[in-house]
Amino acid sequence: MKLNRITALLMLSSLPLLANSASYEVVELPGASMSLNQFGSAIDETGLVLTTAVRPFNPPIDLSLIDLSIFTMLNDPQGAARGDFEEEDYKLIATFLVAQNANQQNSLFGQKLATELVYSSDGTSLNYVSGLDEIADATNGFSFAQRSLVGDSVNGTHIVGTMAGPFSKIPYTNSEGVEQVYNLNTFSSRGFVQVGNAVTQLVPENTEAGGVSTAQAINAGLQIAGSTSTGPAPVLVDVIANCADDELRPDEPIEACLYKLRIQSGNVDSFRNATTERAAVWQVDVNGAVISKTIYGLVFEPQEESRLALSTSAIAINDNGVAVGVSDAPFFNRTDDTAVIFEKGQTIRIIEDDALMPNAATGINNNGLIVGFQRYLVGRDVRTKMFTFDRKTDVLTFVDGFFVNSSTIPRAINNNNLVVGEADRDAGIGLRQKSGFLYDINTDTFSDLNSLLACDANFTIVAADDINDSGEIIASALVRRPARNVKGEETDGLVDTVIAVKLMPTGRQPSECGPSEDDIFAIERKGAGVGFLTLLGLFVISVFRRRI
User: Fold this and answer.
1) What SS3 state is found at 451?
2) Pick from 532, 514, 454, 501: which is nearest to 14 by CA?
């Protein structure tokens, strides 16, 4: 949907970054005015792309949730109290709020600001995917309070994702007569489908303590793949009951007790890992309304006395309604993830060999080709190896990537059997440099996307996030750009920056290139890239939205 009163359409011209003699022309997507870092996420057959802005600029300030008296250096305190901020005063307060949110110091009482927001783009305009966010008078527009996890889009009309619930103010007077205003929501993970301005929640089967649901993919038939909570594990039941007991609950509203349970470790490893989830496929109509739902179980029958939160989750779905993802499965004296197919109410294990666990399926096309990865240890380092599985022949193939023990994660596959993702491009010890890859299953060709660009490229494709049947790829690129403050204004120094780019096939062969400036650039700042690699690693975790 449009940004309404928050941000007007950004009519930015698509600026080609590269010269000829390349297999792909690269266009930077609009988003630089929204945040310093933007990750590519998804692209559908119409060319609509979804990107994620990290730590967006110009956050709104809710004066009802902040004590301005703590700021003793304001240039215009009276103006700030009215919401009429002098520029330096705004930057001081906004920077403080962003830092508080990063450290969760205001997790119960203060204003919430999301670290990740999702935007859709046709390549020129940029639109906020508001999802479950709400218009609020206190911020004169959307709150931008809830972290968004992008899922997928189809037909340029239906967008799916996962978001926390909107926050509301809850007044409470404690036992000492002190009045406090909590700022809380009632759930932390809810799948949704957005069609224009209309948003439909995918309500979980069980909503105790808020429940959990996710929406990760949507097909041409408007079937949504994701997961839904079916109830808390036994280890969590008593903790929820304690929150409802006035004698056992701390001196706080029940909403605060349950909120802490969802966002903090407390008495369980995490709320998500102590909630039983099942893969789900929702059928929606052209308006996004839910018509039906199919829930998928485990690949085994657990013992009744098990106190574990055993789960399944659907990650991708093809146009035939066949979904893939992960399921808990027995692994020695515990359980771990195994790649599975979800079809016609049945959960089918893909890799039967327990020695290859844990593994997960991350994509499936209309030809029945499935991609995923296996996780394994090399010494103390965790590596991932990509696999492909052909349902027609039951042939399982592992792909080395750029070299043996190169961690390789496939993110998407199109109907031309082309796979994109990210992989280690060097064999160094510790944090390794990443490159986006293109793998052609038909020819068994594994290519560094950077080698398919013009020789004078001044950035590195570090991850390829999605590919459509036209061969267009949405990717994330690493560049050096000026640092920016909370308002998006340039400050001193250059920093590693991630931008979202669209790669469009040209039909040409790439030029033969010698050592590029990009290679030299990467080597020169190999040690300086740790911050970016950490950020990328966190984002990879959010892509699969489950404990993989």
Assistant:
1) helix
2) 501
Which pLDDT belongs to residue 57?
96
Query: Does this model's pTM top 0.85?
Result: yes
What's the length of the chain? Answer: 548
What is the pLDDT at residue 525?
41
Above 90 in pLDDT, residue 458? Answer: no
Question: Please, what sign has the CA dihedral across residues 463, 434, 449, 404?
Answer: negative
Burial 138-176 (b: 16+ CB within 10 A, else e): ebebbbbbbbbbbbbbbeeebbbbbbbbbbeebeeeeee
Taking residue 249's Cβ as centre, other Cβ atoms within 10 Å add up to 16
Q: Which residue has the tokens 């197919």?
A: 341
Residues 356 and 358: their CA atoms lie apart, in Å, by 6
Helix (H, G, I), strand (E, B) or coil at 255: helix
Cα angle 57, 260, 35; round to 5: 10
Q: In the numeric block, which tokens belong to residue 268?
A: 């369980």
CA separation for the pair 286, 155 (Å, rounded): 11
Q: Provide the pairing of β-strand 346-349 with 275-284.
A: unpaired
Q: Are 376 and 424 in contact (CB under 8 A)?
A: no
Structure tokens at 392: 């027609």
* DSSP secondary structure of 23-39: SEEEEEPS-TTT-SEEE
- Calpha distance 345→167 (Å, rounded): 36
Q: Cα angle vertex 184, ends 97, 79, to 5°?
A: 40
Note the pLDDT tens digit of each residue in 318-353: 999 999 999 999 988 889 999 999 999 999 999 999
CA distances (Å), origin 202, targets 163, 228, 276, 369: 11, 8, 16, 28
Q: Is 528 exposed, middle or buried (0-12, 13-18, 19+ CB in 10 A)?
A: exposed
Torsion of CA 472, 473, 477, 483, to 10 degrees: 70
In this structure, are residues 504 and 541 in contact, taking their beta carbons and an 8 Å threshold? no
Residue with tokens 């560049």: 479
* Angstrom distances, CA of residue 281 to CA of 317, 342, 437: 9, 9, 30
* Amino acid identity at 340: V
Residue in 95, 93, 60 with CA at minimum distance from that of residue 74: 93
* Amino acid (one-letter) located at 32: A
- Identify the H or E element spanning 223: strand 223-232
